[in-house]
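Incident log, structure service

09:12 report received: a user says their structure output differs between two submissions of the same chain.
09:20 pulled the input from the user's history:
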Amino acid sequence: MFSYLNSQLIQLLVSVPAVLLCLSVHEACHGYMAYALGDPTAKHAGRLTLDPIRHLDPIGTICLLFFHVGWAKPVPVNPGNFKHPRRDIALVSLAGPVSNFLLALVALFLYYPLRLAESSIVMTIALMLYMVAVISIGLGVFNLIPVPPLDGSKILLSFLPRKYEWKFAQYQQFIQFGLLILLVLGVLNTPIRFFVNIIYQGLASIVLAVLG
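09:34 re-ran on a clean worker, output below:
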């Protein structure tokens, strides 16, 4: 790619639509999974959409732009509408990160054929696709951390005795604040980057094998 694409300003501008897409897909898939399992709460709240305005959390979006990890406004879910609440909550929670990994896979399928183009417009599109892949994987990895209010905590709680739900709920705000501090200080950068790189390499190998 041309050197101008390495400009931090260009990367930031390209990151904006990438972030909006990754967040929207993540949250919409939470809602669609809940709806498929019998809970129409997200549908009634207008969250079964890719419209980013419906999903954005200001702090989480800023973190995603600058740190490539973050969160969106949680999709409302009523476990009382599920036939198997603990299992279904885990499936709804898992739908977000899984959708991010699948979105990254699609983005890489489009990115690799375009990455060597000489047109600046095509290269900018390729850069955006690359950013979609990286940010989407980062969003998926970050949300699998088993700390409330992230998706990983809900998945973990589905396999733990119910008494732990009260413990998580009691200290949720403090844990969330601590997580934000660790994120800002960069303590989580290394482990998150490690898993992002592993998943990226795995998805890239699949794409390159298919494309030949």
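09:41 both user submissions now match this output. Likely a transient worker issue. Closing.
09:42 reviewer note: The chain has a mean pLDDT of 88. Residues 3-211 form one domain.
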